[in-house]
Structures are given as structure tokens and as C-alpha cells.
Design brief:
Blueprint lengths: L11 E5 L4 H12 L3 E6 L2 H8 L4 E4 L5 H15 L4 E4 L15 H26 L6 E5 L13 H21 L5 E7 L5 H6 L2 H9 L9 H12 L10 E4 L7
Parallel strand pairs: 1-2, 1-4, 2-3, 4-5, 5-6, 6-7
Helix pairs in contact: 1-8, 3-4, 4-5
The protein binds nicotinamide-adenine-dinucleotide.
The site of nicotinamide-adenine-dinucleotide (NAD) has 28 residues, from α1 and α6.
């Protein structure tokens, strides 16, 4: 758990992509800080295991409006409001040049990484309005900030879109006291990364990071909690590069 003493008692939080990785670390940290934490994910088995006894797992496909609507209805029935939405679900695609990306792959990656943020936020805003200080925290990426960084074209485009949507929604919702911010991580050592990259590749990546290592999911979760906290109430429309110095913008 992050060593940050934020309190989220009487706070209703929904984290998408909470079955594993960063989302699980964040949702667990919220639960440990006293929140009613909803673990939203398509993976029922890992999602239920992640929530354990401290949170509530709700099966939710962030690319499907009906599924999102069911998840939001459940939260509304239980609490009448939502205080924090963390749009974390997202994913990586094969690294290939733009001319080699099939249209189907392009659409799938945009749906998962960008349209999902639109759909989830659209469904959540009416519930966030019922909070005394609603928060949206979006998971962007260094891939959406850098062009010199080798990544997948639809993924980089979707994440740049997330950073942009963060600013637009922040402007729209500021007068209602709802803040919208994004985090742009670069290399977080989740189980997916361990599966995807062998030790040598991971060592190469670590060398390319000025601070010389991967970040842990728990360290990144601390940023999510900070942006969701009352203490971050004067911050909105920002994308925070939590990247070990890989991009100093
Ligand atoms: N890990 C990194 O180094 C890194 C770097 C930059 C950005 N990010 C971003 O952080 C976020 C989390 O990354 P991670 O590495 O923890 O991911 P991960 O692959 O470990 O976990 C993603 C989770 O999202 C869930 N998911 C996938 N499709 C879904 C859908 N349609 N509906 C609901 N849930 C769905 C998966 O089941 C899984 O639990 C992503 O948005 C990713 O792009 C990660």
C-alpha cells in the first residue's frame, strides 16, 4: 500500500481495470483508506479476487454503454452518488508502423483507451454532481506525450486524446467543483510487463529512465489517491508526467 495518509471514509470510488496492475493497486489503496471501492473490470475471476473482502467487484466492459450503465446504476442504488471515478482501464497494442496497423486494431485500441474514458465519464458525471467535490482521474501515458518513444500508433493517439479530453472536461466541470486530471506514467512494473518483457528488455528500459528503474504500481496509486483527495481540490485539467524523468515537460 502507498505510504500516504489520505482518508477516504464516506467516499465512493470506482476504478476501471481494477482486476490487476495499476488499477488493482489504486482500488485496494482506496479501500484501505476507508473508501467504498468499486473494482470495475471485464475479468470476473481476477476482479473478484482483487476486490477480496475490502471492495466490491462489478463486472463492467468500459467499451460497452449498456455494461457501464448497469455498473453506474448499481453504485447509484447503493450510494446515490459517486465521488471519484478513475478511468484506468486501457491497454497496449502490437508495436508496428502506422501503415501496417489494421483498421480493426486501430478501432479496438481507440475504443479501449479513449472512447472508454468518454463513455465512463459521460455516465458518471450525473453521479459526480451529487458529490460535494467530484473527481475524475484519467490514466494517460508517456506514449501520448512523446514522439521519440517507440509505441503503438493507435495507443499513442488514444492516450494523447485522453490528455486532451482531460483538459476539455476539466473546463466544462470546473464551475461545478468537479476536477479532472490525468497521469501519464511511463514504465510501471505490473505483472503484464513482467509477462511481456524479459529481464534483459526490462533492464534496457530501466537504463533509459533517468531515475534508473521501473515504478511500482503502489507508487503510481499514491498519485491517483492524491489527485482524488480533498487536498488536490485546486488542481484541474493537468496531465502529470509520473515517469522517472523520461520526459521533463
Ligand atoms: N504499466 C505501464 O507501464 C503503463 C505505462 C503507461 C500507461 N499505462 C496505463 O495505465 C493503465 C493500467 O495499465 P496496467 O499496466 O496496470 O494494465 P494491465 O494490462 O495490467 O491491466 C488492465 C486491466 O484492464 C482490464 N480491462 C481490459 N479491457 C477492459 C474492458 N474493456 N473493460 C474493463 N476492463 C478492461 C483488464 O482485465 C485488466 O484488469 C492503462 O490505461 C495503461 O495504458 C500503463
Amino acid at each position: 500500500m502507498p505510504n500516504v495518509d489520505f482518508r477516504f471514509h464516506d467516499t465512493v470510488v470506482a476504478v476501471t481495470g481494477a482486476a490487476i496492475g495499476i488499477g488493482r493497486a489504486a482500488a485496494r489503496a482506496f479501500a484501505a483508506a476507508g473508501a467504498a471501492a468499486y473494482f470495475l473490470d471485464i475479468d470476473e475471476v481476477a476482479g473478484s479476487e482483487a476486490a477480496g473482502g475490502s471492495g466490491v467487484f462489478v463486472k463492467c466492459d468500459v467499451t460497452a454503454p449498456d455494461s457501464i450503465s448497469l455498473a453506474m446504476s448499481r453504485i447509484e442504488t447503493n450510494h446515490g452518488r459517486l465521488d471519484v471515478l478513475v478511468n484506468n482501464a486501457g491497454g497496449f497494442a502490437a508495436q508496428r508502423n502506422t501503415e501496417d496497423v489494421p483498421l480493426e486494431e486501430w478501432k479496438r485500441i481507440l475504443d479501449l483507451n479513449l472512447t472508454s474514458v468518454f463513455l465512463m465519464s459521460k455516465a458518471a458525471v450525473p453521479l459526480l454532481r451529487k458529490s460535494t467535490g467530484g473527481r475524475i482521474v484519467n490514466m494517460g501515458s508517456l506514449a501520448g506525450q512523446l514522439t521519440s518513444y517507440r509505441t503503438a500508433p493507435p495507443y499513442a493517439s488514444a492516450k494523447a486524446g485522453v490528455h486532451s479530453l482531460t483538459r476539455v472536461m476539466a473546463s466544462e466541470l470546473a464551475t461545478e467543483g468537479i476536477t479532472v486530471n490525468a497521469i501519464a506514467p511511463s514504465a510501471v512494473l505490473t505483472e503484464r510487463i513482467v509477462e511481456l518483457r524479459d529481464e534483459q528488455e526490462r533492464a534496457e528500459t530501466a537504463r533509459s529512465i533517468p531515475l534508473g528503474r521501473y515504478q511500482t504500481p503502489e507508487e503510481l496509486a499514491a498519485w491517483v489517491l492524491f489527485l482524488a483527495s480533498a487536498e488536490a481540490g485546486f488542481v484541474t485539467g493537468q496531465t502529470f508526467g509520473v515517469n522517472g524523468g523520461r520526459y521533463m515537460g
